# Entry
Amino acid sequence: MTRPLTDFSLSREELAAFQQQGFAGPFTLYEPAEIKKAWGRTRLELLDRSAAVYQDDAAISGATNIANYDRHLDHGFLAEHITRPEIVDRVASILGPDVLCWRTEFFPKYPGDEGTDWHQADTFANASGTPQIQWPGGSDFGGTITVWCAFSDATVDMGCLQFIPGTHRSMNYDETKRMHYDPDNNTAVEKDGTRRGFFGYDYRQLQIDPDWKPDESQAVSMEMMAGQFIVFWSTLMHASHPHAGKTKDMRMGFASRYVPTSVQVYPGTSVIEEYGGRVSLERYGTVLVSGADEYGHNRRAERTTRHQPFRRRPRNGS
# Structure
């Protein structure tokens, strides 16, 4: 049966390849000139944090990752981005029809920056030791679907993503362990001839086998033009190249993360605590991007009109 022109679901062949490799794409969402204009405007507008979900400047000072979280909840362009059918249809073809976006974050890489170390994420407890997502009991699944969109060109020299295909079905890391946060020492560590870090952590501290090393001979580099995106399981072994500094341009990636509505987000906690910061979830909410939420596990954020940012429901409607 022919799919409607507005249906961007993965085809049977694409879905089979995704299940085998753990990723799909790149796909084109914006034309390069379109995203250059939109991102140039958005980048300036995001300097205004007056409506941002996480407001405690003292808690997030220096913890740039937390400061970058969830700006789709207060900015119209990013709110529209996470709900684009080009993204949501593909995600729903993997996760099923009922889907939440539970987090977004920016991943800038400036000239001279180290690469991001190899890692996997199942419960996202890797920085705090506390699970941030919890799939239903007994489920064989875990992790999240990450949609990583290039808001600028992402080449090898500028620090594009790397994947090791087929590594999404088993974890090489124990997320119940704790990593030591030390931004001075762990952000640029030489590892087999490549400068790699993990935002102030050494991800090797979570390895189940301390002597194990990822098989980088199997790695593929995911170069993307500005406006393209890739879809992958967070449990897929992934990393990024260093920014070689051959251009003065920054590489900017924007990641949105999706789970079925059956998954609990930030279960049993009212804060995010990681990367040297601690912020309240009081103003946070998940976003229903597809289908219906029959579980009601999670706080929800909604918007009244298209192109507007999201606002969390009142507590009695959560």
Summary: Residues 314-318 have pLDDT under 50 and may be disordered. The first strand starts at residue 23 and ends at 28.
